[in-house]
Specification:
Elements: H1 2-24, E1 32-34, H2 43-49, E2 52-54, E3 61-63, H3 87-93, H4 102-113, H5 121-127, H6 132-141, H7 146-163, H8 168-174, H9 180-191, H10 195-206
Parallel strand pairs: 1-2
Antiparallel strand pairs: 1-3
Helix pairs in contact: 4-7, 5-6, 7-9, 7-10, 8-9
Length: 207
Amino acid sequence: MGQQRLLDSLRVAIMFTNVIRNYMGTDYHPIHVEISGKPERVVDYQDFFGCNITWNAPMTRVWIDIAILETGNECVFNVTKPMLLSNLQLDDLLNMPQPQDFAKVMYEMVNYNRYYDRPSIHFVAEKLQLSTQQLSRRLHNYGLNFTSITSYVLCNVAIKYMLEGMDIKKIASLLGYQNVQSFSKAFQRYRGVTPTQYQQRLLERAR
């Protein structure tokens, strides 16, 4: 759950910063950022945000100069996503991966792998031209492991299928789980509720 919270916190802070940079320019930096959790390798995130970061904060915050609210910009915001965003739709707004964002690169590689078979560290390592040991060490340096990223990706894909109205049993099969029980246990570990409960909440929000 702690790793999930960290990844969600980083994704939201990165999204917000990228939206501001869409209007203010790519060299814009927030005043201060607060992130829930702390990765082992913090330098890449410090370079991205370009400001001081408070790690292990109780909530995610991005502090900006209020003066930017007075700045005009003729840029058209073309995103036509609904205001109620799922985790997968939120990923669409991140405009990632960037070469220095290893976690996001891994996310995309695992997602790519699932089109061929259940995600495997051997498959991803080969595509990245690394040995499995090298990939595992690199993941460890970022406070990650292959199992957690795979589960994270599959949970987000499951949510996409839920939004399409797909049956839970079919979702479990498409994601390579041997049975619904295994899928439900993995999903609940990352989302705190069962797939059926999560899908019910989505239906209630859509009413």
